[in-house]
Structure formats: C-alpha cells, structure tokens
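Why does this matter for the project? Reviewers at the last site visit asked to see concrete outputs rather than summary tables. In response, this paragraph embeds two records directly. Each consists of the residue sequence and, immediately after it, the corresponding structure tokens. Nothing has been edited or filtered.
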Amino acid sequence: MLTFLAIVAVSYLIGSIPTSIIAGKMLKGIDVRQFGSGNAGGTNAFRVLGWKAGLAVTLIDIAKGTVAAVYVVGFFKAHPVGSFPDMNEVALSLIAGMSAVIGHVFTVFAGFKGGKGVSTAAGMLIGIAPVSMLMVIGIFILAVTLSRYVSLGSILAALAFPLIIAIRKYIFELGGGLDYYIRFLGGRWFVHDSLDYHLLIFGFIVAAAIIYTHRANIKRLLTGTENRLKFGRHA
C-alpha cells in the first residue's frame, strides 16, 4: 500500500510542476494565466510567450506524463516501499499517469489552477502505447495544421485513441494484443507498446473528460469565435 501511495504522490508532484507559469515568470516576469486564454498550458504559452517557449513548455508537459507512467512506476518496482502493488502494470501506469495529469490541472504549486492536462495525458500514453499514440499525434497535427484550432485537434485526437486501440486489438490482432517490451532499472521488464484492455476503457474515459474540459472551446468552435493558433510572439 505504501508503494502505491508513493507512486501516486510522486506522480502528482511531478505533474504539478507549473511549466508555463515558470516560463512566463522567467522570460517575461508575468503569470501566463493573466493573459491570452488564461490557461496555464502549452497552447497559451504559444500565444503569450511565443512559439519557442510554447514548444518547450509543451514538450516538458508531455515528459511529465511519460516520466510518471513509465519511470516512476519503474523506480518503485525496483525500489518498493514495502511490497509492490499486486495489480495489472498497465493499470498501475495509467493511475500514475493520471496522478500527473491531476497534478497538472490542479497544481499544488500555483493555487491548484493549472492547465487542461492534454499534453501530460498524451505523454502518459506515449510511454505506454507509443505506436497508437504516433497515429493519434498524426491526427492531431493534421487537424491543427488544416484548421489552426488546437482545441479541435485535441478533441479529435482524444476520440481517435480508443478507436485506434480497438481497431488494432480486435480487428488487426483478432482479439489479441501486440506488446513490445523494454528492459531497464535493474533488469525489470515493462510494457512498451500495449493493447491492454485497460487502455481501451481508459481511452473512452479520457475522451469524455477532454470533451468536458473543452466544452467552452466547443461552444466557440460552433459559433466561429474560437481563437486560431498563431506562431507569433504575442497572442
């Protein structure tokens, strides 16, 4: 139990690192939540701080999810505080990753007001199911490139993930799973690209959550007032 709680707590703290807020303070001496969309995520960092800072913030936010889902779980499996949780490792990685997402959205370091968690959730899934996520990222990039709406790309990508997992697992693999493994941290093996059914369930939950957190964006998309992404230095 202690190991499980440690994984959740450490993952939450990693996710809580307020990347865009730190970047805003360091680069311009501002709180990015007071400008642009008022969000402490990578998209608003692009708008307020410019594309270089926005890209750096987004990559770090992605890394937070990957580190929590893969390396935090791997570390505590190699160095448990008591016994390691007797549960499906993909499920445990998803719990760790979601702890990081919650930390990103409700960061303890910035008044529990953070970003929307899309990048961190993507990082978590990249660590667990990289092949499926490469397809999702392709859909995201295509949608954003054509529409210039990051919110639309995020929504379509969120919907695409469980569909891709289902197609790969139940159509191309005829009900089986296609898993690759990597070896690290004292000879431990971890799932590198999984089609575990937990991912399918989780994917639908995430899709619903992303749609919910983007409900204001959806209204603006429908009315044609949503902000388009610009790669300039200002919003």
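We now turn to the second protein, recorded in exactly the same manner.
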Amino acid sequence: MTALSVALVNLKPGTGKTTSAVWLAHVFAEAGHTVLLVDADPSGSALEWADLAAMNPGLPLQAAFPFRIVALPSRNLHRRVPEIALTDDVVIIDAPQLEDHEGIARSAMRYVDEILIPCAPSPIEINRTTPVRDEITEVEELRDRPGRSAVLLNRCVARANSTANARAVLEDLGYGVLRTAVPRLEVYAQSFGMPIPDAGRDVWRRVAQDLIERPVPRGPVPS
C-alpha cells in the first residue's frame, strides 16, 4: 500500500495540473518521501519538463528531478501503477484533461486516494469543475475503496477578494477546498523545463501538509 496517491485532474488544459504535480513531487521528495510521478498525459509535459531540467549544466543528472518519473497514458492506469509503485511511495499523477482523454483521466481517478482539482478563483473555472465532480461521482462506483477529492485554488492574486469569494462559492457547492491557496507568481509560471528553485517551495510544502493531514480512506466502499 502506498503512503499517499494524488491525481491532478481538470476538464481542460492550462489549469496548472502539471505545474502542481511537479512542484508537489519535489516538496514530498525534499521531505524524505520516496516519490513516483506518473505522467499520464499523452502530451508528456511532465516528462518533457524532467528531460529539459536534466540538461541544466549546473546540476548532476539525477538532481533536477530527485524522484522516479514514468510515462503512463493508459486507460488501465489503475491496474498498472500498482505494479510500478513501491510500498510507502507518494504517487502523484499528472492526469490529462477530461474533455479529450476521459478514459485515462477516469482510470487515474479510480486509482488514487485523493483527486485534486486545480482551479483559479474565476467564475468560468469554478463552473468547469462541475463536469469533473460528475466524473468523480461516477468513478466512485468503480473503486474498491472510498476516495476523497478537493479543490486546490491556484493562480490567486495576492490580497484580492476573489480568492476568499471563490472559496466560499466552492464550499457552498459542496467541495472540499485545501486550506492553502497557491498565488500567481512568476516563479511558478516560468518554471517549466527548469530545475525547481528554492524560492516558492514554502507554498507547496503547505499544500503537501494539507494533503497529509487529510484522512485517507482505507476501507471498502460502503454498500
């Protein structure tokens, strides 16, 4: 049994799934966990990021991404990841957008303990979470154990009311929302293809702690 498994899922691309997955993988590894990052998106963005970061002349080959990363854009991901993951791994899955790769995304949701929905604090992105929630409800019937889901507010403007307003709307809609909101910063927006810098990690450490502190269901799905 892995220590924790999380899938980053959303309806459309460009919502911060890959960025969230990569930064989370780094802070979990930094904290001493063994980490498996699964790039389940056929576009291979996380794997490309790892390849580009490894080319940085200032770092040893394994230092840029100090954890295992595999490409697995498969509709049978929920069966194949258990064959790859080690006991006590933190497994983080960068899932593809639901609108184009529903089968793969559903398989990722079927496997993990926690489905995390990155969402900017804007009305259009909040509205787009509804199809994701519908998919989560359908997938729950296929799981062999109960799972959890939460919204990760990201790309938030500092000191703007939009973050608090979005949190209130999402909670009124019945979503769990992680306590930590990820600000809109250049260090995140410009990090693709680069080794993860120390600057900006504190926020993701808090996100990781939020995930750790959430109870992870382990029992069978109630009948």
